[in-house]
Amino acid sequence: MEFIPHEIDRDVFVLVADGGINRENAQQFTDDVEAMVRNGFSKLIIDCSKLEYISSTGLGTLLVLKKRMKSAGGDVKLCNVKGLVVQALQVIRLDRLFGIYPDLGQARLAFRPDDSSSSTPSED
Fold first, then answer.
1. pTM over 0.90
2. CA triplet 61, 65, 68: central angle to 5 degrees?
């Protein structure tokens, strides 16, 4: 299992999870994300396109990361979730807690501020 820092876009960090998240690597995953928070990143997208499996420990790790990012004023979003991983998230209803997006582009857009509330339509 590897966690590959894919790219940084302003304050959004994209991390590719490659392989699986389980007891053996969950602590390293948590440590990597905490280091990002200490370096000023408050928004994380986990690209799950290469994530083949997730254990119960891995699911718990995602919950811990969500809480830590939220306490730092940020959030965690998931994208490209498929197969057994999406099924595991749905079974324990974590799909309702996380923002899950079909691709990286849509996950990035979800972090953009909503400008529609600040603009008012003009009348002709």
1. no
2. 140
